[in-house]
Amino acid sequence: MQDPLTAQPGARNNSASLRRALSILVRLGEDEEGLGRTLTQLCNDLDMNKSTVLRLLRPLIDARFVQATPNGSYRLGWRNAQLGQTYLATTDLHRDMRDVLVDLGEKTGETVHLVTPDFPNVVYVDKVDSPRSVRMASRIGSAQPAYCTSVGKAMLAYSPDDAVKLVVDHGLRRRTPRTITTAADLQVELARVRELGYAVDDVENEDGVRCVAAPIFGTAGTAVSAISVSAPEERLPAEAVPDIAPHVMAAAAEISRRLGARR
């Protein structure tokens, strides 16, 4: 989804001042170290003169969206946290992310799943079926093991060590000839997921089915969900995975952004 601040002029709000003020908030929101930006830095970052930036800052400071610090820099104010908490509290993963799943399904022509963790398993919370005649038999509300599914591995790769230990302690039963069945091999696989940014169920959970998944992050930086594309292996051969993966990662990144993740 395109950022409204960078949309084409015809689709934007007509108020240039409003857009410039919002650009200040966006820039301050990108300051992950929390040190703020000086007036000079803001001017350079946004290509505005000092008088303009000061004029735009005044109402933002009055409304507590921006805070002037004792060292002369500017940072986000507490009002942003208030709005952010309200947004997150009213955001529903299933209801509000449906459009992302539909878009991914249209781009790939295959079945899309949205899952949440319930380690040692994962639970399917939403699904968009492929328009093709042969579809996946998965059901919303059903659970599958985390260690042998692409969605499970995508989340485990960015989960605390105790979550991985829970999965291993529960047992790594062989489900197909390709299933990972040792803790050492699982750790190697999770490292590979972190390197690539996506996970693959290479016919490991169900015979004849291959899946590609990417993790969805929350505000804490850990994986809170995952999204995947699943298809019969003849429609999704191993050599096609690198073509599908960018679409899956882009969808995961969009949902992560909506959930307030910085990753």
Automatic annotation (TrEMBL):
<dbReference type="Pfam" id="PF01614">
    <property type="entry name" value="IclR_C"/>
</dbReference>
<dbReference type="GO" id="GO:0003700">
    <property type="term" value="F:DNA-binding transcription factor activity"/>
</dbReference>
<feature type="domain" description="IclR-ED">
    <location>
        <begin position="79"/>
        <end position="261"/>
    </location>
</feature>
<dbReference type="InterPro" id="IPR036390">
    <property type="entry name" value="WH_DNA-bd_sf"/>
</dbReference>
<dbReference type="InterPro" id="IPR014757">
    <property type="entry name" value="Tscrpt_reg_IclR_C"/>
</dbReference>
<dbReference type="Pfam" id="PF09339">
    <property type="entry name" value="HTH_IclR"/>
</dbReference>
<protein>
    <submittedName>
        <fullName>DNA-binding transcriptional regulator, IclR family</fullName>
    </submittedName>
</protein>
<dbReference type="GO" id="GO:0003677">
    <property type="term" value="F:DNA binding"/>
</dbReference>
<dbReference type="InterPro" id="IPR050707">
    <property type="entry name" value="HTH_MetabolicPath_Reg"/>
</dbReference>
<dbReference type="InterPro" id="IPR036388">
    <property type="entry name" value="WH-like_DNA-bd_sf"/>
</dbReference>
<dbReference type="GO" id="GO:0045892">
    <property type="term" value="P:negative regulation of DNA-templated transcription"/>
</dbReference>
<dbReference type="InterPro" id="IPR029016">
    <property type="entry name" value="GAF-like_dom_sf"/>
</dbReference>
<keyword id="KW-0805">Transcription regulation</keyword>
<keyword id="KW-0804">Transcription</keyword>
<feature type="domain" description="HTH iclR-type">
    <location>
        <begin position="15"/>
        <end position="78"/>
    </location>
</feature>
<keyword id="KW-0238">DNA-binding</keyword>
<dbReference type="InterPro" id="IPR005471">
    <property type="entry name" value="Tscrpt_reg_IclR_N"/>
</dbReference>
